[in-house]
Design goal:
alpha/beta; 2 domains; eight-stranded mixed sheet; 9 helices; 15% strand; elongated
């Protein structure tokens, strides 16, 4: 009976997801058609299959991707670029790279074409999504730690929903303002250095229905086309940080709600949630019936009937 109960508990543990499961991961791609950068191994294409944080991603981009040559003031670039374009998405997950039906097929196709046709490319399939700070903050802090005090923060422009602390950043409103900014930077840009432009795309699911944004693929395609038409030499970096829907709070959010004594009265359960809950209820009922059956069989097997009977007494 103990062995059967242990097997049932193991099956139940396999079906219930662990609360300490690894967080969602998103991919990151770096490429450039305007310069050739060799990695430490002497190759033009590099794939890092380790799960890393956005800050470690920034350090790898600077060291292995060659961005330190034109973002850090103490370095000199042999093949300078004018702009380092960073696109921060919110919708793509690592599983979408090989999925048959990704959330944004246009974005996946754009990344594949841009990545394969570039002179130099790097891929980071697993970038962990963190809750403590935004991706743009992690990237800038990673750049600053690697460059030290030599990061040219005055040449950083923010576009979209990006937000950084401080006043040393240029806030742009649209593509027209971006083109005007890049045109004005041609005379002010130090030789061998590049301007850093960051675009943050907010997830449509986090905005009101009336403020639905175009897809990431459409916006990113327009940005790349605008860069090509401006005649700027640029290198591109796409980083995705998957977002969690407000209907399914994270573990930290649940802990905060419990600590404050609040109840999740607004939580909803969609079709997938109902199917999982039904399956889980069926598993619990099946385990209870299985334990009852095994207990009954064990009790019946424990009953011992006498091997012989006394002869009836004659009256």
């Amino acid at each position: 009976m103990k062995e059967a109960l242990a097997v049932a508990l193991m099956l139940l543990a396999a079906l219930i997801p662990s609360a300490s499961a690894s967080p969602a991961t998103g991919p990151a791609f770096l490429w450039s058609r305007h310069y050739e950068q060799l990695s430490t191994d002497g190759i033009k294409e590099l794939v890092n299959y380790q799960t890393i944080s956005p800050k470690d991603l920034a350090k790898s981009i600077l060291s292995k991707g060659g961005w330190s040559d034109f973002l850090c003031l103490g370095k000199k670039s042999q093949q300078p670029v004018d702009v380092a374009l960073v696109f921060l998405g919110r919708e793509m997950q690592s599983l979408d790279i090989s999925a048959n039906n990704p959330a944004d097929p246009a974005l996946v196709d754009l990344l594949k074409v841009s990545f394969t046709r570039s002179n130099f490319s790097m891929a980071f399939p697993y970038v962990a999504a963190i809750e403590e700070e935004t991706v743009e903050t992690s990237l800038i802090s990673g750049f600053a730690e690697t460059c030290g005090q030599d990061l040219e923060t005055s040449s950083i422009a923010l576009l979209g929903s990006c937000s950084l602390k401080g006043d040393n950043y240029h806030k742009l409103s649209d593509l027209q303002s971006l083109n005007e900014y890049l045109a004005s930077r041609k005379e002010k840009r130090p030789e061998g250095k590049a301007d850093l432009v960051m675009f943050c795309h907010e997830a449509p699911g986090l905005l009101p229905e009336s403020d639905v944004l175009p897809s990431e693929g459409e916006i990113f395609s327009e940005l790349l086309l605008s860069m090509e038409q401006s005649g700027q030499k640029f290198t591109s970096l796409y980083v995705s940080r998957p977002y969690s829907s407000s209907q399914y709070p994270s573990l930290h959010e649940l802990e905060r709600f419990l600590a404050e004594g609040s109840s999740l009265t607004n939580s909803t359960c969609d079709g997938v949630c109902q199917i999982k809950s039904s399956l889980l209820e069926g598993v619990f009922v099946g385990i209870v019936l299985l334990v009852i059956l095994i207990s009954g069989l064990s009790c019946m097997m424990g009953i011992q009937t006498p091997t012989r009977f006394e002869a009836p007494q004659e009256s």
